[in-house]
Amino acid sequence: MFDELSKYKQGNFFFQATDSLVEVCNVEANYYGLYLVYALRKGRVELVYINKSGPPEKLSDLKVNSDIPDDLRENLLNGFQFGEIERKNSWPVQMMIEDIEALHVHWYVTYDHKNKDLPATMKSKILQIYQGIYGQLPRWNLT
């Protein structure tokens, strides 16, 4: 669905509510990027969340492979979602509430030595494509 993301360094992992997100997350530290979260529920797969890492919105603010305060891994594990609760704690609760069997997280490094695409720009593009297809944002982006 998102051919724009195929050029980036990428990976994915599965997360179940009984897992430790810190242990199953295979996202490398010190990179900026984007991640898409798919929910597996009752034999169906649904894209429920699209997010980016890092606060920089300008190229001049980005540093590659330095001490990044909100890199892709840090954002995925410790960013707040569903209130003031870190994802590593909020996702298992939300999964139980929604009867989600697993999350399949796909991550993409959009800014590194090879690519210089700002995560905020890429998130906006991907959300526009999604909204163009489905007429709305992914449901976890609405909360």
From TrEMBL:
Protein name: Uncharacterized protein
Native source organism of the sequence: Pedobacter gandavensis
